[in-house]
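Title: Prediction job returns without error message
Component: structure pipeline
Severity: low
Priority: P3
Assignee: unassigned

Description:
Job completed but the reporter wants confirmation the result is attached to the right record. Sequence as submitted:
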Amino acid sequence: MFPSTAPEPSRCLVAGLFKRKGLKFFAGERFLKYREARAKLWTAAFGPYVQEFLAERTGEVLSEHDAAKASAIIARDYEELKRLAAKDDDVAGRPELIKATSKSDHFELRFSSPAIGPAPRGVYVDERETDRRLQFPIVEQDSGQYIAKISYATLGASFKGKADIHVNYDHAETRRIRMPANVKETTHAGAIVFRTVTGALSIDLRKAKLA
């Protein structure tokens, strides 16, 4: 069990890591497309980790929906995990990219977010191969639309690989930004804002010269 005397920042750190790196294996269509044997293998592999670090006071560091998944993982309840995965789209409508533009010193991302639900508070850029995360502020435009400015200098000083872009919300899990097929990619000095094969928004910095 996670010690009751552990500092809250540590619990938040573990929960954040689990949300970014662990819960993706139990999300929506990805989990539902697994063969049963593989899904149960993932559940068994994560079970001891979740039991040790997140079994107590789970609701304090995870949303209600994610806390239910954590409990199902601990219980190795495959049927409950399938039920929760099927509800993912209903629980969290994803933000959607409207336009990506390369400016003189930043990428400008205009995106929409569902009007019903928690309010967006910022944008996270998470490097895939590490636990490094950058946060950028957003400015609300028209109702339901927001602009994030992703600094080239900040990206170049921190990241060297591919990074995924999420929206941070008040009292809710972060949500990956969807990039429709008709929205154009944009580049600057080797950095590429692009659409993944699953239709999500990412940045490729492997060949970037931003610093």
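Comment from assignee: result matches the submitted record. The chain is about 35% helix and 30% strand.
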